[in-house]
Specification:
Radius of gyration of chain A: 21 Å
Largest interface: A-E, 53 and 53 residues
Oligomer: homohexamer
Largest sheet of chain A: 7 strands, mixed
Strand order of the largest sheet of chain A: 10-9-8-11-12-13-14
Amino acid sequence: MAVFSGTAHPELSAAIANHLGIKLGGLKITRFPDSEIYVKFEESVRGADAFLIQPTCAPIDANLLELLILVDALKRASARRITAVLPYYGYARQEKKDRPREPITAKLIADLLRTAGIDHVVAMDLHADAIQGFFDGPVDHLTSIGILSDYLATRNLDNVCLVSPDEGRVKTIRKIASRLRAPLAVGYKFHPAHGVSEISGLAGDVRGKTCIVYDDIISTGGSIDEIVDTLLAHGARPEITIACTHAVFAGKAIERLSRPEIKEVIVTDTIPLPAAKRIPKITVLSASGLFAEAIQRIWTDSSVSSLFD
Amino acid sequence: MAVFSGTAHPELSAAIANHLGIKLGGLKITRFPDSEIYVKFEESVRGADAFLIQPTCAPIDANLLELLILVDALKRASARRITAVLPYYGYARQEKKDRPREPITAKLIADLLRTAGIDHVVAMDLHADAIQGFFDGPVDHLTSIGILSDYLATRNLDNVCLVSPDEGRVKTIRKIASRLRAPLAVGYKFHPAHGVSEISGLAGDVRGKTCIVYDDIISTGGSIDEIVDTLLAHGARPEITIACTHAVFAGKAIERLSRPEIKEVIVTDTIPLPAAKRIPKITVLSASGLFAEAIQRIWTDSSVSSLFD
Amino acid sequence: MAVFSGTAHPELSAAIANHLGIKLGGLKITRFPDSEIYVKFEESVRGADAFLIQPTCAPIDANLLELLILVDALKRASARRITAVLPYYGYARQEKKDRPREPITAKLIADLLRTAGIDHVVAMDLHADAIQGFFDGPVDHLTSIGILSDYLATRNLDNVCLVSPDEGRVKTIRKIASRLRAPLAVGYKFHPAHGVSEISGLAGDVRGKTCIVYDDIISTGGSIDEIVDTLLAHGARPEITIACTHAVFAGKAIERLSRPEIKEVIVTDTIPLPAAKRIPKITVLSASGLFAEAIQRIWTDSSVSSLFD
Amino acid sequence: MAVFSGTAHPELSAAIANHLGIKLGGLKITRFPDSEIYVKFEESVRGADAFLIQPTCAPIDANLLELLILVDALKRASARRITAVLPYYGYARQEKKDRPREPITAKLIADLLRTAGIDHVVAMDLHADAIQGFFDGPVDHLTSIGILSDYLATRNLDNVCLVSPDEGRVKTIRKIASRLRAPLAVGYKFHPAHGVSEISGLAGDVRGKTCIVYDDIISTGGSIDEIVDTLLAHGARPEITIACTHAVFAGKAIERLSRPEIKEVIVTDTIPLPAAKRIPKITVLSASGLFAEAIQRIWTDSSVSSLFD
Amino acid sequence: MAVFSGTAHPELSAAIANHLGIKLGGLKITRFPDSEIYVKFEESVRGADAFLIQPTCAPIDANLLELLILVDALKRASARRITAVLPYYGYARQEKKDRPREPITAKLIADLLRTAGIDHVVAMDLHADAIQGFFDGPVDHLTSIGILSDYLATRNLDNVCLVSPDEGRVKTIRKIASRLRAPLAVGYKFHPAHGVSEISGLAGDVRGKTCIVYDDIISTGGSIDEIVDTLLAHGARPEITIACTHAVFAGKAIERLSRPEIKEVIVTDTIPLPAAKRIPKITVLSASGLFAEAIQRIWTDSSVSSLFD
Amino acid sequence: MAVFSGTAHPELSAAIANHLGIKLGGLKITRFPDSEIYVKFEESVRGADAFLIQPTCAPIDANLLELLILVDALKRASARRITAVLPYYGYARQEKKDRPREPITAKLIADLLRTAGIDHVVAMDLHADAIQGFFDGPVDHLTSIGILSDYLATRNLDNVCLVSPDEGRVKTIRKIASRLRAPLAVGYKFHPAHGVSEISGLAGDVRGKTCIVYDDIISTGGSIDEIVDTLLAHGARPEITIACTHAVFAGKAIERLSRPEIKEVIVTDTIPLPAAKRIPKITVLSASGLFAEAIQRIWTDSSVSSLFD
């Protein structure tokens, strides 16, 4: 077993290696002055069961291309099996054509990874389940639901209600709600009557409740902002907890999450969170143990499925 | 241009050919006594732009294998391009792994079609948008929303509300609602409190309204039955209209749709509906014109996208 | 090593597992009400050397599609190698184009299996040897000649002659004849003179002999019926033995085999023979030991070739 | 349309071009002193529908590799479609594994041609029909039966019998026999009784008849020699006609064909016959018209199937 | 014909379109706040012969990924043929492994382009000729030698000598020298004697001559700086002209080119040159006419080869 | 581990096996009278890590096709990994298009090898480094520089200068020069002035020196002949040593190498050198130890890279 880290998220890679009780493999990654990437593995990988840890978060072009180049180098150096550990799968929200003449970039990325030489993928909380089918080979699809639920349980929140900001996350919200034994509510947009513009509705009763909103990805925080407004309008207590797996936190995200009705923001470390964005109310839970366990089991051909849920 | 029909749905194929003003191509399809399929195209397809019409509805194994064999024969007979017109895409609901060691059959089917020699796919209202990405080549993804909405508009229903039976169809319901300038409601399942078993909830106000429920596929009618109960419990008028694209109608479907609170059931003809199931309240709208138009445009390299929505 | 059985022939799978001294792997295979197949492996197959036993006999569409879906599930569950054990290879007689615009379905099936994820194939008495070449990877091609010959030797038949019903099986008949140290005869169709319609001829002297007719597949029994007539017309003793590997027995097969001049019908169990068709004169020899031995040797990288002849 | 000739059989290529009323495309093919082949097309082939004429006869390695290199050059020069016209398909008799650890070279050749960039194949009288299935794309499989039969009909032979030297050609012999309205006979090898070594048998009555023996390929003439002996032993007239499609004529072939009981040897020109081997009794019928017609029809997307039989 | 421009070099694309007398196709390319690229073609490309102009210069990751996504969108929108016009091919200098466990990124890029759906490539002055072989399909390899030579001829320089800065460009230098009917010289590094460190040598006599140095790519200008030193040391006139195809101009390039002994720097516009780098002594010759001509000829299936040299 | 030898160079294969302390695997290779190759492995290769030794030297067509057929047989016999050991890679000098409508045969060969079933390649001193990139999988690229340099060091030559006959080998010459701590010189062709025909130039001072000329391949010896003339014209001592890796020695090579100013010719045994060409001044150094070591390390997953330089 040889575990290597791209440059996207060295802290997570180090934490995974620490859990595994190993050192990360020697690997040189640099840039030429004209922006071209150069990589070189510093130790033999011949016959190795190689794992590459690289979330394809921003800067997504650079992180993705670096990953592809690393895979090419491993393949040509006779690695026996190459597993890409992708804590965050960029472009996951472009998994379909919503309009004509758009790409399906999430599928393209899967094809590029296969072309470079990936044999196996480990991912977490993919935005759409069908992305698993974009790969021809095995995908071990981990989830952070356990990590988030376990932490939330320790908060001893009272009179809780789990909230999905839109219809896309109801399936996940149900799983968290069932672990916390709490009711759920769902936000949605609708036209209440003819000629009236779209407004935010809410299914479920949140009056006086302590709401926990979960989304898989928080990008600019726009939809979180809206659901918080909606929850407050429906009488929720102004002590709302926000949870997400992938803390993209682009644009105005931090500003929006700073509003006082949001009491705590719980995220995992699938994407590096720069110090400047680490406002006090953010709690980062590490998924490194889960990734380490998955790597260990893949390496030893043990069942990974018990980590799925 | 040469348009051929498999044996899955000859009525639809005939209707499409009629719209195009052409005769269906000569094609012999038989079975040997041991159940093996035998096919032979009765006219030259050399250099042809060939279209094969075959919904992969039940008996799904037979219809799918027949389609694959037809494609193989076309390919070996030097057809220039082979387009599969798949009014219904079977196995679409197995587009992801929900549990470990399941297949992703919707992807497998796409791969089998590519292997047999398909260049291009025309489909309608795929259960999950990401299925488009399961194909490497172009997919023209038609929708019956226009057909259904236009018909509904002619019914002059009063005080209408569009209803999605679960979170999966909200996106489509929004499109119909916006055409009919009507509000919407969404059914969902939830645990109202700790220790209480799952019940059906409803987002949106349906009191005294004439509800139109849409689902893409009605299989055994179980979820339609539940949403009707829920709507009635929330005060909807007992004159509910059910609309769907793909009338699978397996098991108890007809029995369930026969309940008196359902006034009309509107479906399209993507799947053949045997006479025995054609109860009076069912209205079948033909999608044949839409498929004919798509074939015509593909053949002449005109834009198909205006048919998408 | 993990050995799984599709639903085509559970008795044969059980017999193979028994020979191997193992339990068949846990596997759930069901149908949804709309006819779609659902499968789920009940135990981890990660890193496994997996064998799937499934003759693609009638209902051939169902058995084939089930096999493809099982392979897809195994592949996505990280099985290391997937071997399809195909005691009977359906569509083997469509291995060429006899007329323009026909498919070559036997090749299509091989391509579909490769696409689904098969690494290795074990087959028996393929109708045409060239079908081995339809696969890119290894095919272990077993034969039942040894089983059949050994059994025939125990019958102590007197003054025996081996008979091929047509030119297609002469090669196999020679092998059996050389094991039984008996002469052979070959049936064929010919026009004896200008303007005379085709009749059945026979090469070789069968006068007063105890004939053993071998064919690889008996489907409706039509050609067996004809060769029996021919043999009797050429003076063979009316105590004819029929042997075949693959007892398809469709249509009027049992009726035809019931004629009194046929004394015994010897078949193997590559295809399940329903109780209703098990008339007393049929002797079923099991190929399960041979398949078990092949699986054992493939698993241990021992030579399989000694099983070939 | 652009038609090019490799170096294997320039006479045939010239004859085909003559039938088409075109000039062969400019093409330079040379060898470096170290035996490497160098090719260069002398005119633009961009967008061309290119046909390459090259039987893969002896020296088979050279002819095959030259063909592959020509295809590579055409592909890289942007030809639109590349059709290999293969009057003789070398290695066709290695289309299966007869023993363990043999190759299936006929399949390998098909794979190599696809890899180089072949889109389409035109072949004649392939040794095994299943070789068509070794290709993924279209194969136009011509036959010389018409040419040979038409010529034989002009000979006004009396009391004719068509003879297949072994079981492998019975299917073809039937077609010729039905055109000439003559009976047929089949040679075969068998053990007449226990302990007796294999002898040549003959099915059908040839006493006093004028025999026409057909085989697809005559290599060293060994099996022709044997069937002639057998025919004479069974009372055939010592004025035997030999017909074949592919005149390989290796080793002692000419010597064997020179025996006086063979009156005429009819072959086609799929393989070049050097002057030294053109003994007077050999009649060479040209297949060039048939190949020209096939090329013409492929180019104009007309049906080729009427040329098949 | 439809010609589209990525965002890498809109000026070049506009110039090419101008030469062709067409408008560039409508195309929307934006970024989401989290850095993901979004593209949408604004007009139908169904059946189109589509050309995408995109040099993969810095920022190379972004330009490359954008190109791949554009190709994916074109492919799924049913473009008939997709040609990538790559005025500059990034990563071309990583076309081999110089050390173990390096990637061969130039091959990887070719594979990624093929996977995305490229059918055809137009490139200019590839760093290594063998890169053409990295593609399976046609590559039209243009050269700027004509443009540069024609311009140099107009300068009426006296007593000229063409200089290659190292052994890698001698082949190109010969072509320019033969057009200008001038002698040549070659720089190289060597150890003049045992124990002496490597120094720059020069083959050819440059004493009192007006030197023209050509390199395919000028990145940081380091090797240009060295060859200028060497030329001066060998007595060349301090009025040196530098010519290159691909003006990468990274790092200290402009500073180095500013030294007074360099009189003029002639480049083409395969890479955008920002205003800040456009020092007066730089002359930019446009390759847009050449690319336009190549596109025109590819579209009309005319010969492109006359543009190669 | 199983090591097999094709017929191209049995002496080298035997020497490699001897170094490994193993017997070469049993393998039958014959020709049919019509020139077709027949191969059969005489022992089980199921699950084997198989190595095939075959330089693709002249007769190159035969050696290459034999190699492809051997690979096909190994693949179908279930070998686990197939490594082609290619001491000499024929067609390496056709690795690019120099003129339009040429092939890129070096890439074609790589593609053919992959199609046949090669997993891994071991090569030596490839003519162009980029050929490594023609393969998708790992290439272990050995070099004879160490062997040649070590031998040269033992010759105790005085006042040595390393010479590259043209610009193509400067990179290699530098490596040898640095091992021998000697200066270098480079031959080249140039036009010394307008209107003067091309002459041979030389960079570097060879006056009174003992020159060692290295080229990777010596085919007809023409360029060696020219560089010797040039060296003598520049005052080199008439005791020149010639070294090369691949002794093709076609055409007039031996005659040219016999000139008295060439004192010794040092080659390796990557290509068989027939006795008739073994003139006394030729020294053959064996690369067998290097190949044996590489095979040993590949088999044991040890690092091969230390053998690269």
